[in-house]
Structures are given as structure tokens and as C-alpha cells.
Design goal:
The protein has 654 residues and is an alpha+beta fold. The protein is built from twelve helices and 32 strands. The protein is globular and about 75 Å long.
Length: 654
């Protein structure tokens, strides 16, 4: 870099690239290219290289084998480094000049962010599982509510940032570089908790601030089980450049690895995209519908699906003129009536137990653990429930439903969680989509306003985008609760919401079937290059357990995410990774929720052995969040670094 810091990369390219230069593809992320993402990288980048591209996988400054310190997500330094990397790639003798960027999650984010800076070398982007809005639709907040994944994700990066570079790459400097990271990366969760409303911190890196800044083609990709589906639809709606959207049933994975299935030949689709925009070859990719999506059919509720039944559908534009609003009015006793049916206003109220949410699954599913929502009947006992009659014919929806709710509250801070479920004839309830709203954010998240006790408000709760078929014989269920722990942090005090039916309305994006047009949408089977040889030395386990102590009235959700120990043959390296999380509460005490994450990570090669232990605990009372964190680093059995944090942060209408 221009300041002298060196970044580490792996490069795949055709053997004759220096004699016959080729376009390049960049993936730029902090997840350790030499070990942690090696298998994924080899499958994808070697495949692209075998089809005429130079692929460059770079560790961010302060991660993997790159020098420097990684102090936070998406800092300007990261984006500036990205611009320099693009210039460096384009200047290499093996590069023909045009460069594309691809990435999932972090790499999907910075692909869009760097595109918004308009570097001349960047000609196209494939952004998978990313967002255009870092406050409104990321791992940190949802509808102004603080997400449990905010703690989980902060703990993940706390562990990543504690890891050293590989001495086989950086030599004897590895220890000095390691200690620089240990002392300098900081506690990211503290930074995030100090920004509980949509301020300049979150606007930075949110490309929705200026859609016109992006002037290169974008392919936006996600899955219905992922946390980043909504942004695909906003990018299609708001960008002015050539663009495509692809949404499958998948969790937070590349679609050629997609679980729940079916996985698709995503790398072949990417080649069609790269050949069009980096080589100027007509591949037919832009003749596809602007949006291709998997229309899911009913499946019984479970925390892990190997695949989801359904079919591919397409829309030539988004928003689509093929859609129509299907309106349902909230009525009593607990019914949803078709719009136009006279309904008298009834007054209903709800104050949910903290148990509502223990079967909600993860905000962003990785499908590597049983992290999808379970049967919703166990949640509905603490919610107001409104059902349709059994459907006489199938109802298909595509897009984002919303609930226009007439509501009042008895506390100045309150939240509402809204779920739609598909209730089968045997009464099993599969969650289809959901949405959250911190009611102090009812007029926006830049300037939240406390509620006036007893005052009636009309608010809109936006639910996540989804494609789903409610079959004939099912009932559509709307569930409303005042808590959703641990998916979202509860309000400071238990609040009772009063719901006014008749004026409250659920609006569904109905899509009439178009089987003849949709039948043309097909994908090839997944392909990829050969993965590296890796051997499982010690098996791990992946479990979610709900533990209930009836004597103390304490409930705990325990998450075990243990990959065991793996030997990576090309690097001659043993890698160990284990994460444990606990989310607990006592009875009806809204100030008792507690989240804890414990990570253990380590590497071994011959006499070289290092491991780190990171622990993060988050609690809160009615006025403050309390954050405690610990970091211990070991060389062999000797602890060589230790750090502790104890921080108190005021709650900001959250």
C-alpha cells in the first residue's frame, strides 16, 4: 500500500496469462485466505482461473497474513486499500485491464462500497448476501431493535482479530504482528453499542445513501434463509445500472454450496456474467429475467432442511407490474378477514413473556447448525394470533408483506414482533417471514421518539421479503408479540400493547402463477474446481439446546458451534475452531436477559502452536448496557497476552 503496509494475497491464473493477459476477479475479505477459507477459495477461484481469469484473494489489512491492524468493519482505510489493490491488479502483466469483484457477506458489502467510489478498473460486481443499508438491514439492528446477532457477530470478529499471521508466510515477524493486533484491534461491540440510532457511523458504507454512485453492473444474490435477502430487491429497484437478482432457498452460503437446497451451478452463472462484462462476449445472461427466485412450497417446521420444495420463477422487472396487494383485516376473535368484509373495531392487548423467541432460530442462518425456526405453536402462546379460514385455493406471495397496525403502549419504549406462518391441516406452523419494530423508531431511526402512554399510533411493520406458496387447506397465521428474545434484545421494561382491530391491516404481495413463463428458468448442476485435501482430526458438534430450570425459572438457549480440528495438507497446518453461546433470562424479568459468547481458536504446525480464548458477556438494566470481555492468547501452554474490558453504555430508547 502507499503507506508501506503489505497485504497478503493468493492468486490463481491461466498458465499463459503473462503471454496472453486476462481479466481479473478480486475477493477481498478478513477471513484468512491461507486456512479458514482455503477450501471455498480453491473451489471457486481455481474454477474461474480455468475459464480464463486471474483471481486474486486478498486478506484485509490486519487479517490473515496482511500487515497492520483491523479496527472495525468497512472503514475508509479498507476502501482506500481496495482502490489501491484494483490499480495494482490492473497494472500487472498478466491482467488485461478489466477487473470484477465478487464476495459473500463482507466481500459482498465492500464490493458495493468500492463500486460506489467508481474506480475505473472495476467493471462489474457480484455481491452475495450483503446489504445496501448498514443500520436498517444488517446484523446489528432490525426495525430499530438491537439484534442478538450483533453480540454473536462481534464475538466472531473478536476471535478472528486475535489470531496471528502464519510464520511460514511472514517469517520471524509473526509474533510482533500478532501482538500489534492483540493490542490494537479493540472491542468492536463497544463501538457498535455507542451508535444505537442511524447516524453518520452507519451511513458510511451504506450505498443506499446515493444509488447513483454505483455505475457498473451488479448481480445481487441471496437466499430466503439468509439474513440479507431484502437488499437484493432494493438494489434491483433503485440502481440505474444493468443488474440482476437471484434468490434461492439458501442460507448464508454461496449458491453452488447452497443449503437448504437445491444448490445450483452458480459458478457457471458467474462465468456468463464475467464473460459479458469483463470480456465483452454475449452470453445471454442479460436476457434472463431481472429477478430469478425460488418460490418455496410448504414444508413441515424443522430447524434444518436439506432442501426446500418449490420451483424457479422470474420477473422481468422489479418492482413487478404482475403483483397485486392482497389485503387482510385484523378482526376478533383472532381472525383475518378479506378486505371489504365489515369488521367492528375491537380492543385487544398483549404483554408477551420473554419465552417468545426461543424457537425463532438465528437472524442469519448458516445451515451449519440447527438454526432455523421451529414449530411456531410454541411461540404463539405468548402472542396475539389471527388466522384466516382454511384456504380454498393456493396463495402465492413474492416480496415484502407489511402490517399497518393501530396500536398504543403503556411504556415509552416498546417493541413489536410480527410473524406470518403457514399452518397445515395438522396444525403444524411453519414460519414464513417476520419483522420487528422498535416503536420509538416509528417515524425513522435517525431521531427516535418515546411513546406517549396510552396514545394511539398508526405504525407500519415491514416484514422480510419472501417467496412462498400457501397451499389449499392451509391457514395463514399472523402472530404479534412484544418480545422476541434472543433474536432481538427486549425493551427496558415489559410493555403492554393495545391493538385496535378493524383499522389494522396485513398487506401481502400476491403473485399470480405464470407457469409457462417460469418453466424456462433453469440452472445447471453445481460445478467447481478440486478442493484442497483436508482431514478431520477431531470431530466437533453443532447443537442448539433450550434448557429450562423450573426451580429457578431460568431459561437458556445454548448454542454449540464446534468444527473440531482439521488438518489442511497444502499448508501443513492444524486448525481448531469452537464457539459456545448462551442466551438466558429469569421468569418475567425484562432486565435479566444475558448473552455470552466464548470462542476458542488455534493453529499448530510442528513445534509452532498458538491458541486464543475470547469471551464476551452482555447484560442490561433499564438504563444501561453492561459489556464485559476477556481476551487471552497462548503460545504453547504459556499465556502471552491478556486483556479485559468492563464498559457501561447508556440505552438510547432501545
Amino acid at each position: 500500500m502507499s503507506d508501506g503496509v503489505r497485504l497478503a494475497a493468493r492468486i490463481w491464473m491461466p498458465q499463459d496469462a503473462e503471454a496472453h493477459p486476462v481479466p481479473a476477479i478480486l475477493e477481498y475479505i478478513p477471513y484468512r485466505r491461507r486456512d479458514n477459507t482455503r477450501a471455498r477459495d480453491d473451489v471457486m477461484h481455481a474454477y474461474f482461473a480455468g475459464h480464463g481469469y486471474a483471481c486474486v484473494r486478498v486478506d484485509l489489512r490486519g487479517s490473515g497474513d496482511s500487515e497492520g491492524i483491523l479496527r472495525d468493519e468497512y472503514l475508509q482505510q479498507e476502501l482506500d486499500d481496495g482502490l489501491e489493490i484494483l490499480r495494482w491488479i490492473a497494472a500487472q502483466p498478466w491482467c488485461a485491464g478489466p477487473v470484477g469483484m465478487i464476495g459473500i457477506s463482507w466481500g459482498g458489502f465492500n464490493g458495493l462500497q468500492i463500486a460506489a467510489l467508481r474506480p475505473p478498473e472495476l467493471k462489474a460486481v457480484v455481491s452475495v448476501a450483503s446489504t445496501d443499508d448498514r443500520y436498517g438491514d444488517d446484523v446489528h439492528h432490525m426495525g430499530g431493535c438491537l439484534l442478538g446477532d450483533n453480540l454473536s457477530w462481534a464475538s466472531t470478529m473478536f476471535a478472528f482479530n486475535s489470531l496471528p499471521p502464519d510464520p511460514e508466510i511472514v517469517g520471524d515477524r509473526w509474533r510482533d504482528m500478532w501482538f500489534e493486533r492483540l493490542r490494537g484491534s479493540g472491542l468492536w461491540l463497544e463501538k457498535w453499542l455507542r451508535h444505537q440510532r442511524r447516524d453518520a457511523y452507519w451511513r458510511h458504507g451504506s450505498v443506499c445513501e446515493d444509488w447513483n454512485a454505483i455505475q457498473c453492473p451488479v448481480m445481487a444474490v441471496s437466499g430466503w434463509a439468509d439474513g440479507y435477502t431484502n437488499s437484493v430487491f432494493r438494489l434491483l429497484k433503485n440502481l440505474k445500472v444493468p443488474r440482476l437478482g437471484l434468490v434461492g432457498p439458501w442460507s448464508h452460503k454461496y449458491p453452488h454450496q447452497g443449503v437448504p437446497g437445491p444448490a445450483i451451478g452458480f459458478l457457471q452463472e458467474c462465468l456468463r456474467w464475467w464473460d459479458k462484462w469483463l470480456k465483452g462476449q454475449e452470453t445471454g445472461i442479460m436476457e434472463e429475467p431481472m429477478l430469478r427466485a425460488w418460490m418455496q412450497e410448504y414444508a413441515p417446521p424443522t430447524t434444518f432442511y436439506q432442501s426446500r420444495p418449490g420451483r424457479w420463477i422470474g420477473e422481468q422487472q422489479w418492482p413487478s407490474s404482475n403483483m397485486r396487494d392482497h389485503r387482510l383485516t385484523l378482526a376478533r376473535p383472532g381472525t383475518l378477514e378479506e378486505a371489504g368484509v365489515p369488521v367492528d373495531e375491537e380492543i385487544m392487548s398483549i404483554q408477551s413473556p420473554l419465552a417468545v423467541g426461543q424457537f425463532a432460530g438465528k437472524w442469519c442462518s448458516y445451515a451449519a447448525t440447527p438454526d432455523l425456526p421451529h414449530d411456531q405453536r410454541e411461540e404463539d402462546g405468548g402472542a396475539l394470533v389471527f388466522d384466516t379460514t382454511r384456504l380454498e385455493s393456493p396463495l402465492e406471495i413474492l416480496g415484502a408483506a407489511h402490517l399497518d397496525l393501530e396500536v398504543s403502549a403503556d411504556e415509552p419504549v416498546a417493541m413489536v414482533a410480527v410473524r406470518i406462518s403457514d399452518v397445515a391441516p395438522d396444525d403444524k406452523a411453519t414460519r414464513v417471514t417476520y419483522g420487528l419494530l422498535n416503536l420509538t423508531h416509528r417515524n425513522g431511526s435517525e431521531h427516535p421518539e418515546p411513546l406517549k402512554r396510552g396514545e394511539r399510533y398508526r405504525v407500519r411493520v415491514n416484514l422480510n421479503h419472501i417467496g412462498h406458496v400457501f397451499p389449499a387447506g392451509s391457514r395463514l397465521r399472523l402472530s404479534i408479540s412484544t418480545s422476541y428474545w434472543p433474536l432481538a434484545w427486549p425493551a427496558p421494561q415489559p410493555a403492554r400493547l393495545t391493538i385496535y382491530t378493524g383499522a389494522s391491516e396485513l398487506v401481502l404481495p400476491e403473485r399470480p402463477r405464470r407457469d409457462e413463463e417460469d418453466a424456462a428458468i433453469r440452472f445447471l448442476e453445481p460445478e467447481g474446481a478440486r478442493p484442497p485435501h483436508m482431514e478431520l482430526l477431531e470431530a466437533g458438534q453443532h447443537k442448539w439446546r433450550v434448557l429450562r430450570d423450573l426451580e429457578t425459572d431460568e431459561s437458556t438457549l445454548e448454542v454449540i458451534n464446534d468444527d473440531g480440528t482439521v488438518y489442511i495438507e497444502p499448508a501443513d497446518l492444524e486448525m481448531q475452531r469452537k464457539a459456545l453461546e448462551w442466551y438466558s433470562y429469569h421468569g418475567y424479568d425484562y432486565q435479566s436477559p444475558r448473552g455470552e459468547a466464548l470462542w476458542e481458536r488455534g493453529y499448530r504446525r510442528g513445534d509452532w502452536s498458538v491458541h486464543t480464548v475470547t469471551r464476551t458477556v452482555l447484560t442490561a438494566n433499564s438504563t444501561h448496557f453492561h459489556l464485559h470481555a476477556e481476551l487471552d492468547a497462548y503460545e504453547g501452554e504459556k499465556r502471552v497476552h491478556s486483556d479485559n474490558w468492563d464498559v457501561e453504555i447508556p440505552r438510547d430508547l432501545n
